[in-house]
Amino acid sequence: MHPSRKIILQITIIACVSIFSLTSWILIEIPEHDKLSESYTLDQEYSGQNSIVNDVKGELSPPFLLHDALSQDVVERNGNELTIHSVVSSKKAETNEMLFKVENTYKVDSLTRKHLDRDGKFFAFPPGVEKKDYDFFHPAVFFDDPMVFKGTDVISKLEVYIFETVTNGADISHAFQQFAPHQIFTDTVSRLYVEPTTGNVIRFEKSWENYLVENGERVNTVEIGRKETSSFTESIITETTIAQIENMYFNNVVLPSLFLSVIFVGGAVWILSTNLKKTKHEKSHLEQTDRQKNEFSSMIAHELKTPLIPIKSYLDMLIAGRLGQLTPQQLEKLDIIRSSAHSLNKLIDDLSEVQKLETGVMNIHKEENSLSDIINGVIIQLEPNLEKKGIKLHLELVPIKCNCDKSKISQVLLNLLTNAIDFSPSSNGKITISLSKLDNFVKIIVEDNGSGIPTDKLESIFLKYYQIDSSLSREFGGTGLGLAIVKGIVELHGGQISVESKLGEFTRFTIMLPLNLRDTNSLLKHSMVK
Q1: For residue 405, what are the contacts with CB-CB under 8 A and spacing of at least 6?
Q2: Sequence-distant (≥ 6) Cβ neighbours of residue 65 within 8 angstroms
């Protein structure tokens, strides 16, 4: 198959996997996460005041304080059908005298949050509330008049949508048995302040006026009052909603982005690795494939770096507890995700570095630096790795200053030492680092007593994507870019790198760097990474 067609096929496969994964997440996981669960409960308190007559045609009493409550819990589940028990109660705040208590049972679809026995009317607002009217029967409103969108507001830095239900002339004589057989009607206004992302009601307000009607005429007001969500309940709902918004963002945005990044990077590695199995006599064809691959690598590095930055930032914020407290189990899982994100970032950086080397756009900024300080700085970074494997480190350093790019040389040493740690034995591992001066050059040696490299493989280890042993690569990770980058950086400094090894005994990398720019003529001129 022609290389370009093969790449197109692989990209198509990756795209299909990505689309399938994203679609499955949107259509299955997100609705499952957002639906009402069988553990759903709701407890809210309201405060207000009320006045009521003792006699149907008497005078209203002085206003007294109210303490109302709404509680809901699931009593039965059958698939997506929930049976929810709801209790609305009202007491006098001063005497705790029960004024009324209304209990109802509702059949609700857990996915849509609609009543199953009221012609599709909503029981509660679903996530993603829109600026429109809703057909509702709310347990605290008592009437099924429409919820009319009235505008927006801000409560505790949360944007809320305001919905209003107005009921005029509803017969509530059954609620006033003490006034039977007189007819009692009511006018009510209920206002709900809804956070649109979660559908949570942050604040509930209700006012009512009940009156006696005779012969179609209003005769006397028998009750007038109002209530609203208590400040304590509102603060609890607000905190819960903020945490829920963050959780929904993580579940709906961060995780899908991370999954897609894993698919894209994995696909990129798959594409790159499967298109690099070429022989030397196919050099011209390999160069053409390299150009295509480099363009693809550049695109991958650019497109994946952007979404990875907010993913890592939000992971750090979550682990630091800045977005709410997490359980130890959640922190453990997030640490795994952060480690994976770090690996992805390292892979993207390596792809970008190789692309810069091959296109000749990598810049180095040379200045006088102490090489022993650079080496010691890298060792400090890797001390946990050395201690973890119990590796002994032997240093033979002579104070030498060299005209070089500190960050790039640090990167070279970090790659070489990381490889040495990975392939050194755990029981008696030893790594030797020596620094010396040879004429007008600096000589750096990094040697380990690991498994060694076969002689016939020594010439190939600096090739891009080349890995000596697939089993070792699976154990220690990597894509074969590290040594290619090392060679490219050393040659950009006008230096050389070589390797010696003996199976089962040692591997030794030797770097020669000119002390000054004018000394580069005695070494081979810089060449692109092969």
Answers
A1: 364, 365, 366, 367, 489, 493
A2: 47, 48, 49, 92, 93, 94
Note whether 12 and 124 are same-domain residues: no
Q: Is residue 350 part of a domain?
A: yes
- Clarify whether residues 10 and 48 are in a common domain: no
CB contact at 8 A, 365 and 405: yes
Cβ pair 97, 256 in contact under 8 A: no
Instruction: Give every strand in the sheet of 41-52, ordered side by side.
Output: 98-109, 81-92, 64-78, 41-52, 217-229, 201-214, 183-194, 158-171, 148-155
pLDDT in tens, 198-240: 999 999 999 999 999 999 899 999 999 999 999 999 999 999 9
Q: Spell out, as residue ranges, where the chain has pLDDT lower than 70.
A: 1-4, 275-309, 312, 314, 339-340, 342-343, 345-347, 350, 352, 355, 359, 468-479, 517-530
Please state whether 128 falls in left (phi above 0), alpha (psi between -120 and 50) or beta.
Answer: left
**In this structure, what token pair is assigned to residue 209?**
């006026």
**Structural tokens at position 97:** 């005298």
The one-letter code for the residue type at 260 is L
How far is the C-alpha of 208 from the C-alpha of 226, rounded, in Å? 6
As given in the structure block, the two tokens for residue 248 are 């929904």
Stretch (H or E) spanning 87: strand 81-92
Q: Are residues 378 and 429 in the same domain?
A: yes
Same domain, 195 and 292: no
- Does residue 90 contact residue 102 with C-beta atoms inside 8 Å? no
485: CB partners within 8 A, 6+ apart: 350, 353, 354, 357, 411, 415, 529
Q: The whole model's pTM is what?
A: 0.50
